[in-house]
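Me: I hope this is not a bother. Any chance you could explain this protein sequence and its structure tokens? It all follows right here:
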Amino acid sequence: MTFIRVRRASRAGLLACGCSATLLAPVAPARAQDPVTRAIAPAIDAADQEVITVNGLRRTLTTGHDTTGLFRHSLGFSTYSAGGVSALPVLNGMADDRVATFVDGMRIASACPNHMNPAMSYIDPDAVSTAVAIAGITSVSQGGDSTGGTIEVDRKDPIFARNSKILVTGHARGDYRSNGGGSGASGSVTVANDWLSLRYTGSYSHADDYHAGGGGQRVLSTNYLSFNHAVTLGVRRANHQLALTFGQQDIPYEGFANQYMDMTNNRSTFVNGKYTGDFNWGTLEARGFWQRVDHAMNMLSDKGGHSPTTGMPMNTDTRTAAYSIKATIPLGPRHTLGLGSSFDHNGVNDWWPPLQGSMMMGPGTFHNINDGHRDRLGHYVEWKAQWLPRFSTELGLRSDLVMMNTGPVAPYSWTGMMSMSDAMAARRFNAASRGRTDTNFDVTALLHWHPLDSLMIDGGYARKTRSPNLYERYAWGMGNMATTMIGWFGDGNGYVGNLNLTPEVANTASTTITWHDPVDNAWQVKVQPYYTYTHNYINVVRIGALASGLSKLQFANHNAQSYGINSSAFVRLWKSDAFGTGELHANLNWVRGQDLVTHSGLYHQMPANGAISLHETWRNWTGHVEVTLVKAKSTVDWLRNEPRTPGYALLGLGGTYRWRNLTLDASIENVTNQKYDLPLGGLSLGDYRATGLLGPLPGLGRSFNLSLSAAF
């Protein structure tokens, strides 16, 4: 069991609220005396290296190389299964674009009609310093244009030496996973004095197809290869600090088991700047970033491979540029004012080159999104008040102007019989007025009450608004093949956009009750019920049929509701010099969503699930035994032919030994090699192409994992 020290946040920075704020590593619970303490890992500086591992958040082997794995035990968190490093985040049943995801302050949109490159795929878990998931109710300063919550993942801030000395520090890590032959390596090195810091970080990860539990079936299209590089330059003077990060990611290939396509190349280049300063009037944070993504899809060998005359090439080129400014101004000892402004530009070109000799995919280029753009200008004001030592409130207002448009499009052929439906759709699309401007506003009202030393009650209401993404509005193709190339749901269906979509408006009420030991932090129980009613929820209607019982669907606005309860608990069982420290941890999440027009379940709602684990720490050893429990999935979205999956229980074992600057991790996942299907895995389309059998995506079988890391 690894604990990370929790620092107290200033009242100007954080207010405990009726939401889930989770550090993604086991954290010692904060003492109850400070109502504004959040479980957030601090950025590392030279003075803290003896307390916190060099990696900041120290991921476990079961995290793998997908950064979403850091959130495994967060309240209300789950994932849509995708590629090996590209799962899509879900908070309280709301997924992907409905969750505002920031990586180093960058709000990154997926540059792909299948969302194969979500924001968290651009950072390796070992590079993460802090990671926070806030489900449901979020402060207006934590992003708009979302309805499900906020995820913030940050690299380490630059570190500096004390006095005028030269600091050289870093870490290296290597790991191996038996199932799929996965391997990885990562490292960083920093050279700094007391005002200048230079850091390089890099990582590599690779895996072949994994094998499912039970009979050991090979699950096709689950292989991947990824490289990440980043250089951070930091400058510090008095109360001011500037950090510039330059980075590049290369993914030469990544299989997607629940998509018709695979990723055959993804290159991201970015520049990210962050300034923080303390002034007499308050604090200022300013960020700016630019990113270019060149993305290519086709079919890897598991799906038949590709050549100049086979497969289906699909290319996407995006440019993202943004700024954000946040000012925090104390208005006295009890009141704080927050002001902010941000702008995000996302430009997309999505085209499908012709295939040589193909009558269906040629002779011209299919222009799916032609010079599309989605620009968002947002402003907010936030007032935090500490009325009494045990009672505080927060009120926030936010406006977002979302401007979208795209140029004229084209099918593979304007005259060919196989392209007739796409040609007709393209003519209608080009003749339509395509520019759209949405004026959105959000409201957040939160309160924190600490009636007893052992009891905290957080509650609130939020009105959150999200505009459609480019594909929900502008995916225009009507042919069966063209529609099945659109969609990030892993369900095998085909999707068509809708120019008439209006923004979603989600009204959420939530409360969090925390009962804990105020003296020795020996136990804690947290319960969080919530309810959300969404006007104009972007769901689907059926407009046609495809093979194998699948459907052609068009995005449409419906009203919907979702409700659920999240809970977690821990208790210290023993603590002594002879036997070390033993703790029992447990969590349980349940959500239910319903489309109030079709009366279908909302798509990909995780069934009741939880985990119970025993952790032991003795001297340099730590170990754990964990059982993951998932109920059968019986409530499904019948419009999308969502499969039902049986319940299952998985046993995991793990241990860590630390000696000086070395750390050895070993674990066994799915010890009993249990056969199970992933409730949010969608359909195993890679296996379907090879076998003709269409079914849910199988989960990972038994895997022996080993990792060795060194710090200096």
About this structure: The radius of gyration is 25 Å.
